[in-house]
Amino acid sequence: MIESQRHSFHLVDPIPWPISGSLGALATTVGGVMYMHPFQGGATLLSLGIIFILYTMFVWWRNVICESTLEGHHTKVIQLGPRYGSIPFIVSEVMFLLALFRASSHSSLAPKVEIGGIRPPKGIGVLDPKEIPFLNTPILPSSGAAVTWAHHAILAGKEK
Q1: How far is CA 96 from the centre of its chain?
Q2: How many CB atoms lie within 10 A of CB 49?
Q3: What angle do CA 33, 35, 41 make, to 5 degrees?
Q4: pLDDT tens-digit series, residues 84-129
């Protein structure tokens, strides 16, 4: 940490990455709309916007890593920010999934008259549960078990 600093917080220097990320998002959005409605140059603008966003992500994270490791600006207080910030994100994701499941169960238990009063609506094909969902069921727990196993191996010092 810098010795002349009298507090444990890091005031970042002005950087161009927020505005360049915004311009990349604008180019991606406009390019996507142009691509979906057959305008000339839509695919090019969409590709340039995605490349610009990826470049911005790379250089912004490079700056953050440089600030934390080489310059030593990330103190214990600063390291708590992303940890505490992830809690509202996880809670919002849980609430979103609860709302999604609630809407799905509501529309399946009380289908609207506009769709014929049946669930699923006429003309909508349903997946056979013995095909793709049956295949995905063992993949999910086995991938979670593999990641947990690798995590415990790293903690135990068995990295090879």
Answers
A1: 14
A2: 20
A3: 115
A4: 999 999 999 999 999 999 988 888 888 887 777 787 777 888 888 8
pLDDT of 8-39, one tens digit each? Answer: 777 778 899 999 999 999 999 999 999 999 89
Q: Is residue 25 within 8 Å of 51, Cβ to Cβ?
A: no
Tokens of 92: 């919002």
The DSSP result for 37-66, as a single string, is TT-TTHHHHHHHHHHHHHHHHHHHHHHHHI
pLDDT of res. 5: 61
Q: How far is the C-alpha of 53 from the C-alpha of 51, rounded, in Å?
A: 5
DSSP-derived secondary structure letter, 131: S
Structure tokens belonging to residue 46? 């969409």
CB-based contacts of 26: which residues, under 8 Å, 6+ apart? 49
